[in-house]
Amino acid sequence: MANTKRYWSGLDELRETEAFKTIQGKEFPEAQSVDEFLTDERLESTHTGRRDFLKFMGFGLTAATLAACETPVIKSIPYTNKPEEVTPGVANHYASTYYDGHDFVNVLVKTREGRPIFVKSNTETGYGRVNARVNASVLSLYDEARLDGPRIGGEPSDWAKVDSVVSNVMQGEGRKVLLTNTVLSPSALRSIKQSGLEHIQYDAIDYGAFRASAEADFGVNSFPSYRLEEAETVVTIGADFLGSFADNVIYGERWAAMRKPEAGKMSRVHAFETNMSLTGSNADYRTMVKPSEQGRVATALLAQLSGQGSAGQLSDEATKAVVAAAKDLKRAGSKGLVMAGSNDLAMQQVVNAINAALGAVGSTVFYDTMTLFQGSSASLKQLTTDMKAGAVEVLVIADCNPVYDAPNASAFAEALEAMKHTVCTSMFADETAAICKVNAPTHHWLESWNDLQIEGDRIDLVQPTISPLHSTRMWAESLLRWSGKNQDWYTYLRSTHASDYTSDAMYTNADWNKAVHNGFIGVEVEPSQQVSFTGVGTAQAVSELNGRKGGAVEMALYQKTTMGAGQHAANPMLQETPDPLTKVTWDNYVTMAHSDVDAMGLNGFIGQEKPASLVKVTVGGSSMELPVFPMPGQTPGTIGIALGYGRGANGENIGKAAFQTGENGSFETNTDGNPVPVGQNVFPWANESGTFTDYAQYDVTVEATGGTYPLACTQIQNTFMGRESIVKETDFTSYFAERGAEKGKASWNELITLAVHEDVSGDGTIDAQDAKPTSAFDLWHEHPVEEVGHRWGMTIDLTTCTGCSACVTACHIENNVPVVGKDEVRRHRDMHWMRIDRFFASDYSLERGEEEGTSVIASYRKMEDPSANPQTVHMPMMCQHCNHAPCETVCPVAATTHSNEGLNQMTYNRCIGTRYCANNCPYKVRRFNWFNYPGYKKFANFNPAQDSLMRMVLNPDVTVRSRGVMEKCSMCVQRIQSGKLDAKKAGTPVPDGSVVTACAEACPTHAISFGDLNDKSAGVRAISENNRAYHALEEIGVKPNIFYMTKVRNVEPNKA
Amino acid sequence: MQREAAIREPLILGDKSYKDITDDVVGPIQGSAPIGWKIMITISSIIAVYGVGCILYLLGTGIGVWGLNKTVGWAWDITNFVWWVGIGHAGTLISAVLLLFRQKWRMAINRSAEAMTIFAVIMAAIFPGIHMGRIWVSYWVLPLPNQFGSLWVNFNSPLLWDVFAISTYFSVSLVFWYIGLIPDFATIRDRMTKPFAKKAYGLLSFGWSGRAKHWNRFEEVSLVLAGIATPLVFSVHSIVSMDFATSVIPGWHTTIFPPYFVSGAVFSGFAMVQTLLLIMRKGMKLESYIHVKHVEYMNIVIIVTGSIVGVAYLTELFISWYSGVEYESYAFINRFSGPYSWAYWIMMTCNVISPQLFWFKKIRRSLVATFALSIVVNIGMWFERYVIIVTSIHRDYDPSSWGEFHPTNIDIGVFVGTLGIFFTLFLGFARFFPVLALNELKTILKSSGENYKKAQDNH
Q1: Residue A686 sits in a domain of what CATH number?
Q2: pLDDT tens across B169-209, in order?
Q3: Which of A713, A748, A766 is the last residue of a domain?
Q4: What interface predicted TM-score (ipTM) does this complex get?
Q5: CB distance B333–A830 less than 8 Å?
Q6: By CB distance 3.0 to 4.6 Å, which of A182, A300, A405, A1054 could disulfide with A311?
Q7: Is B401's CB within 8 Å of A890's CB?
Q8: How far is CA A228 from CA A209, A252, A456, A504, A694, in A?
Q9: CA nearest to B61 within chain A
């Protein structure tokens, strides 16, 4: 139908009047020529002459030019409709659960304006405490290298196409296999069952022997639950339970529960280990044994405790240590606990026999419903063989990276490449995804729903805290779609737990909402069964362990607290967090005893311009060149190398921070033109000779190559040079004898006094007895701080600080601390506001030098060298917020000042960058912005602030500092302010515990407490008044607001 | 007119008349530049340009281009600063203190020594500026009324005292130097024939006509300024030393620093004067005016101040042991036996041992030996500051933060660059300025001139 409508502009047009006809089609109703206009007399009276015109034009031009010079305006777009829960500037916290195949923790996710920016432990109902890796995992959400959608054959595709391609092959003939790490999700397991895929599980770090030994000895297939909070004596044979072993996220807190000297509770830990581990450094007694001797330590213990079997050959020192450990175990009885880290069936069987003999089973170790580590490296091996033989038609790989971390990765990769139908659901085009035909990327855990069951009585929930950033899909949902079930993941997950679930119930189901709020669903379980020890294989296991031979050099592979099994290789904050023991960042290396380093003529001191020596390590025909770190406490004749490095060796796009950058910030490339990964991958060196993957090799060769390689350490001086006003420690017996002493009077924490030239003692002479405590001396007028307003303070218990570095990453993320990269760390320019000083004990002291007649100079030089098997102190160090701060007086522009709440404040805007304050800081905690970290090219490839996506993780409450200003710990002043605001709104005083700094919040052992020292009810005040509390470097008289608690070791007095 | 004992060595050698003095000083300015001068200024200005390039790179990129780190926050920057300020001290001492003490021999050397002071202070002033993280807000160290709220400077900070000390020192030195130059500029003006040069020197000489009234005022102003400048000789380096002395760092926190720094400054300043003048007298044929006697006098000052410095070093060591303070004694043990002990022993050799050679008259009066030793002393004094700054903070209280310092090319470039700028300025001075205070020299010609002394003898 033709359009007959007509539009008219006025009545004239409608009526077609004459007047309209004359002007129709003309732009102007009256024509006027230019000549006419210019000669118009009326113009004369307007007074805008040619000159004026030029003036106006000049002004206009200038104004326009000036306006163009204005700083660009970055517009932020306000919400059109404000989401119900989101108030700009106010953080929301959501309960969720972190699980990556190894670590399992209930967490709270902090979001700001819809962005998750911080992960902390869910202390109320939670399982586990965050470690450094969990803490920093929020960064990976914003990794630019994440796949932004599905791919087929490496080309971007869409989900419809992927679904049709994969569904087709799934309907075809042949064996179809799903390979995953241990799956804890009941819903995912249900979807796997429905999909009809054959499910094979393996773990990046294999713990198969633990389950197998439990099956053999107790008849249950369960991973042991260690109750360290019950254990009075713990003997660990190579199990780094505070650092990386198994369910470490929960062990630390449990261990610390038994390290309470005030309560008279003090467990004793004996460690027998090859590498210096975090646990060994916190153990009361530590004995160095080679990997091949670890088994004989276990058999000797068994022989000592129960007379079963026979002890194998051990060194005198180890035998003595075993006897001592056995004595302590006997005394503890069922409150004893023996753990072994070795994934070796014979070893675990002997350990089971020991625990059974002690009566520890059912007391300190349980075999019930722990679901972690169900993987089997044997079935992965079988799968590889089958794949090679062409017996597998379709392989779906979900949530794991076997091409990198499988025990026989190269064979697996080869077989995988040859297969026709391979699907990988990895978030990144990582080692595995890069050679799979179809990539169907899954969500990041912060974007996804999930349910996880680790122990019987509860199912923990993962809830999304942000909409998926990319076109990704939870892998279990993909499985559903591919098997013809078109159900979305959330509905499916809900219906797992309530079969009558409908989507209408989404917002009404109060139980569910409560479960999401709390982070878990409680479920009914049968009471755990009583297990009894059969011990059928013990005799054979003993003879196997006793017969184990080692070569000249043995190797123990370990996981760093920061890097774990390598999932976080592209996380710049974890790469920059120093290893708690070596203090090396951005690399893995060979750890070697000093005696071996000297014997091989290698570099024994790693400094700024003193690189590490390279050695060629050969294991079973394959060799690699690695730098050597001389490690106190490393068993002579052994080496240790960290797993989890060397990700992206073929240049896979797994994130920029996984690769090495040069001094100008560009990637280092190898001969193939691929970027060089950080560190090297030693997963291929895992021991495959048995059924289970073990992480020790009994015969390797190490040769010096003459080459060197720089390592970036944050601490190069290993000992504390006998400076006992920094570190105070004692043994439990001495502590206990004087536990009631008044503060400052106990022999292990005496107040520091300074000699004065007046007769204080009143004996008529002025001599060395005339001394006053440092508090008597003051250069300044005293401002009253006690009981006036707030006085923020912190206490740090050196007894329970394990050095795990969770606080370091928490501080890093909370305070937008710049990541500066390896080259800058090597130049001692790490920016950590909080660091953990790790001091090894030295054999030497000035007293010993005096006895031996050594000169003071020579004694000091010897005190720089740690013992071969040293005791260790981990001492968190950050701005001490001195009440008489030396930094404050020297700043010419008063950029650093004291608040009336006891904080030493840094005003970035006022700072002109003279660095005088940093020089004058006795604790050396001030950090200078040497470059424009958020902008300079050297940092472009790893600094989160330089990445358009990763900068989303920055905390909007904390300024991103620019070049040339000083920064340092602010005691999380943004949290203090918000806590005060909340209290003000509520009209109450700030309640104790409502303001917690990031470090205190992250500490898994509750070693750090924070609060108001003027609040009489505050926990921190009580601790600061404890007789173990002291100020570091008290004699300088700077009066810090941070208290350290004397370290108590549970050792015999003569060994303290 | 003063009379002087005939047995005293004459200060002006040869058969010089008033006109000869004028000719000797003004001649080089009137003539064309000698080839040696051209070569030298080419080299020094190339180095200066390189140094300026390094400074611009530093300002553009950040302090990180230097080798500093979290432990060692100051190193070459403040070392250079203190070294240059110290060098400046000799000029002020010569012009002010020696004037008050009526040391006539100063007249031959004061002009160039003062020029050296001015240029050295300029070089020194570069470092506190460029060592700041944010030089663009460096004016915040001045107590200016501002709109930033009630922000004011921190009068407790020794760095602020430095700002006042250095700026006062620079202005007084500049005025003093310029006042002295006025009659000499007038002499040059009178002899210039080219109109531009005549005009330029005319402007510089402020209409000086040589009237008795002018001379009267000139003498008065010189005395007043000498009175003002004399305390500055002592105060400036005392205040610089307080940057360290008022801190808590072992090795810095030392009450001995002010006198020790002042004598060190005079020590290094005289050494630099020797270095410059020994070249200049040769190049500009001023052997009659600056000769062995002058060199010997200066060498005596070097022995005295060098020995004070040596005593100070030993006192420090003794006190560190005697105090019984663990950190203090370790700081000094570390100085002479730690990773930077090489720097300590360079310092000891150059500053304590080498000047003692001047006890030998032969060495004291040897120009070659003096030249060599003057350079040795300057190296030693640079290392003294390096030792104080770097070895104290690289291992202070907390052993976990003990570190190292390694200079980068930019550290070296900036330092060498300031040497280039300094020599460029000094060469410019030697070409266009009266290098001797010629009108003052004329006043002693008849009392200390060799020919006049001989004439008196014959009389």
Answers
A1: 2.40.40.20
A2: 999 989 988 998 999 999 889 888 888 988 999 999 998 98
A3: A713
A4: 0.92
A5: no
A6: A300
A7: no
A8: 21, 9, 19, 46, 24
A9: A931
